[in-house]
Every structure is written in C-alpha cells, then in structure tokens.
C-alpha cells in the first residue's frame, strides 16, 4: 500500500457460517480507490455487494465473519485491526458513512427528521445549534425545503424525499467517503435521475468520495468514474468507467452492457444474458459464458492486469495450456 492510497481492500473475504454449510459471499476481493472517485459496484442479486460494503464498515454480524487474511486500508490505517471503540469514534460517520440498502425504512416514523440528525451527532459531541445549522444546510443541498422537512415526520415524505434525507444525514459529520447501497433502486426513473444529479453535485462541490452500489449498470455508467463488477462474490473486472463501458473485457461485463438498451446500442443489438447459477468448479461464470474455453471448466482464473484494468478471465491470462 502506498500512503497516498485512499481506500484499499486486500484479499477481502467474508463468509456466512450456516449450521451445515459455509456461504462464501465475498471472495478475495482486492481493489483500491482514490480520493474523489465515484466507484460503482455492480453485480446481480446475491453477488456480495452489500456484504462487501458492510465489511468496509465493520458491520458484518454473525453468522457472517470476515476471514482473517483480509485487510482494509483507509488513509494509512488498517481498519480491521483497529479497536472497536476507536473505529466507532474515529472512522464511522466521521470518515466513512453509509446509506444502507432499503434505507428509507431505517428512518423512525415517530421521530421528526431533525431528531435523526441530533441522534447521529449525539455521540460525537456537537452542540444542538451546530447540528441544526448543518442539517438545514445539508437538507438544502439535497434540494429539500429545509425548514419544512426538518420538522416533518418521515411518514409525511415521499420515497425520494426520504432517500434525500438519508443522503443529507450521511454527510452530517463531513465524511471523506459515503457508501450508498442501492440508494435509488426503489424509485421511479425521473426521481432516480434527480437524485443522481444531486450525488454528482455533492461529489463535485464538496469532494466527497462515493461508493455507489447498484444492480443496474446503466445507473453506474451514468454516475461513476470507476466501475467494479462482482460475480458470485468475486471481482470480475475493475477499471475507469468510460473504458469499462466502451470496451468491456470480461464476457460478463460485455453481457451486462449489451443487455441494456440505453448503453448497449440500438434495440436490435440487445441480448439478454444467458441464465445459470455460478459454478463451484472452474471459473464461476463458466455456465453462462459465451467465450467459454475448455480450460475454464476446471480451472479458476486469477485477476490479470490488462493495461491498468483488472480482469478475472483466462482470455487475458498468459496460460500456455489453454
Ligand atoms: N445474514 C446472512 N446470513 C446468511 N447468508 C447471507 C446473509 N447475508 C447475505 N448472505 C448471503 O451472502 C451472499 C451475498 O449477499 P449480499 O446481500 O451481499 O448480496 P447483494 O449483492 O447485496 O444482493 P442484492 O442485490 O439482492 O442486495 C448471498 O448468497 C446471500 O444469500
Ligand atoms: Mg445488497
């Protein structure tokens, strides 16, 4: 790790230990992001996106467990070896905050919006006046009527408004990084666009780095500076968003792109992705891959570096036995 690295995970693995089996949800994921990036993490349901986010926030609960080989570096510190109390005091909310999946339900309907801000700031010793002032400023930044919304109860707000309240709340302690898990997924397309613009503005104007998790590659293509593709808990491809979208290297990324009209080209070129389960032997994508080679059926690919792009695929490995 260089000291300039903003966030880096190294061999991050998380498993859920069930009574009879172990579900490896995140497998050996190594990636890094620089300050100021909007990193889009994409992958279908069950690919490990939320588990990866929760690992960075040290919010994995039993039966989940972060495997001991895992490392997460953030601004020169290794997060997994920090004392729990230090992590809570120095990192959580203050440096890295979170907009959880299905988060609209995480607002308490019996508390006014402003009380959620007081609650969040409580353990960090800010005065009530300071929190009120900051909350109003943030509500305005996410394009809500600050006075009215601060006094409202969550049930009086629409889904899009609640989501914007949560984004404002995540910014309360001026974090360097906000992790947003499916932050627009339950909203209509117009509201989605509106919120994505707000997120872009936050990134541009106050420089907050963002990890934006979504199963929708067109949202990621629109918003992200960098893209990381997960499949069955493994990193399949990672690189600059524009390059990944224009010239996807992994067959899975290529399939994801050509299954979406808005970025895959004309309607005639749209192809649905072949269905199938992740394989337990060989490449996890082998049952669905349209570039399948015999070699992929039994061997597990490593991550190869292709001109700065990371790709887990034998098409790019210099394996003579292929
Ligand atoms: N609390 C849990 N107990 C057991 N298994 C879990 C738990 N949470 C997640 N998993 C398993 O871990 C894998 C990854 O789940 P995760 O929720 O991280 O995926 P995801 O990509 O966020 O999916 P989605 O798009 O549906 O939110 C899945 O196989 C899931 O069943
Ligand atoms: Mg999820």
From TrEMBL:
Biological processes per GO annotation: peptide transport
Pfam families: ABC_tran (PF00005), oligo_HPY (PF08352)
InterPro entries: AAA+_ATPase (IPR003593), ABC_transporter-like_ATP-bd (IPR003439), ABC_transporter-like_CS (IPR017871), Oligopep_ABC_C (IPR013563), P-loop_NTPase (IPR027417)
Transcription regulation recorded as keyword: no
Gene3D superfamilies referenced in this protein's UniProt entry, alphabetically: P-loop containing nucleotide triphosphate hydrolases
Domain ABC transporter stretches: 7-257
Protein name in UniProt: ABC transporter ATP-binding protein
UniProtKB keywords: ATP-binding, Nucleotide-binding, Transport
Organism: Acidianus brierleyi
GO MF entries: ATP binding; ATP hydrolysis activity
